[in-house]
Amino acid sequence: MSDQLPYAERAVRGPVACAAAGRVGDIAGALGEAAFLSRCAARYRAAGFGAPGAAEERSWRNSWPPLFAALLRAGLKDLQVYLEYGTPGGGRRLDALLVGATPGGGLGLVVIELKQWQTCRVLDTDRVMRSDGIVTAHPVHQVAAYRSFFQHWRPDGAPVLDVRAVVALHNATSAEGAVLAAGAGEDVGVPVLTAEDLVRPGGELARLLLCGDLAAPSAGQVKEFEAIRWQPSSRLLDHVGADLEGNSAFALVGDQQDAFVRIRRAAARYLPSPGQDGAPEGGGEGAVITVSGGPGSGKTALAVRLLGRLMRAHPTSRPRFITPSGTLRAHLHDAVRGHGAARELFPAAGSMRSTARQAGALIIDEAQRIKRTGTGLPADLAAVLEHVPLAVIFLDERQIIRPDEGTTVEEIRAAAQALGRTHHHLELTGSFRCSGSAAYTAWVDALLYGTPIPWTGHTGYELHLTEDPFRLQQWIEHATSQGHTARTTASFCWPWTRTRARGATTLPLDIAIDIPAGPASAARTWHAAWNAATTLTDPDGRPVAPHSQLWATHTGGHQQIGCIYTAQGLEYHHAGVIIGPDLTWSNGHWEAHPDQSRDESLRHLTPDQYLPYALNTYRVLLTRGTHTTHIHTTHPDTHHLLAGLIR
Fold it and tell me: Origin, by domain of life (predicted)?
């Protein structure tokens, strides 16, 4: 769709991404219908949000009736309402969004955040602890970020928007709501309404809901709102784009720089530029560029730098960055946390198809992790190749770690050619991890895939074999005390308790490794906890263990053991690696033992089927450290092999 068309003609066609939409009175009347929630769930799935879980549907049943009772009492039955309104790419879903007409003829938007809480404990202006012990974002700042989205993603030519935000605690008392409101810090213009507020007289309630001056929007105004094609404002693009492109940590060298130049040339050919007359030089053909490279070759650094460049040089192409790695995405969100509206630049992998229909340029990192359900290219990736004028796909085929993953360069090339798309393949051969030690990554590849060779050392990089996990843990603690990031990882060879008791302040010590008696020591057992599924805090709200997706960088992560899913795509100064009983060296070769894995998607495989996934997993874990790697193995023959290689 050409960006040279009048704004109204450039609108995205099709239904708004949400669970339900209509006039308040009509939705309120439908709430009592037995099939209403089923219709909402179907539209929710069709919007690309996935299947709503039991907790999601329970929140709908509990929160929607009191909300609509309040809206009717306030005389707002003719306002337009959207439930579970999705921002571009599905990055966020708003509980409820009201749209009305302002006295000046513009559109007034009210974002409503619904909470079923009665009480919570305010930890600081950004976080609260719910009564079940879960730490979450402060609702006032959460909904203020949604308000910021509409303010920063309104494109030129779109209707003028007056955006407001409200938090509704429909089970809380006024006193409980006052505690939450006071804990938000400075006044950000977001009122906190409680059960007592929601039953106030009509006019007063309308004002509390920030709707006192809003009238029913005309059908044309509703259509105009739904036609808005949300995209970052030039101010946001300049700010975040400059941060991403100009960050010295992303300095590009060697084949990184060569790849950057070639991709920029392709972007200039296939994407529109500001002030450009007519269509891009490449017309409607489009291009697919694959970029492959091993651990530490700079794929993610190049991908992030490229996003910043495309945002500034080709803003109307609506560039986006998608990764199937939830851990990497969490770190990207963390990196732009000062620009709340920038989170939309990193949509979830589950929304890849819907993003492909909107974006003119799409960067995909860790593409080998994209889920597949059969033979051939994954359907999500096929949609990208079909719709996106410029797709840049980063992958490493030796980081395929599950049977339901595994996209290859050859599959992408064949699919691109079948669609008549130009395909270019670029290789990154450098090493920017392991103190620039290509020698170390070559040693790891020889160990796992070829003939193991002795480690002869490399200036600036250290490799050690650790006799027992107690010493490994001591080394990690010491490195952390010196101000370095140090983490230990292991393959999934021990049980993993996924839930913890309400109010728990410790993690279960699921990992147990028996150390036999030595000449001067008694037998003992080392215990450790896996990384935490959700943030763990002490009784005073101080972080004890970070959320698993931020385990590699946030305070306290060194005290838990990470896994392939929390380490892949990331790095830290010092890496401890535990090679468990699922991979052993016997009779001069590696042997796989899927029965030793606790991963249900892998345990059913034969040893020959499991072996490549095990080798790839340990390749990832062994190449996370930028300065040092310490290895411990639970198998005597494997330890003997490594002892002969690591002097």
Answer: Bacteria
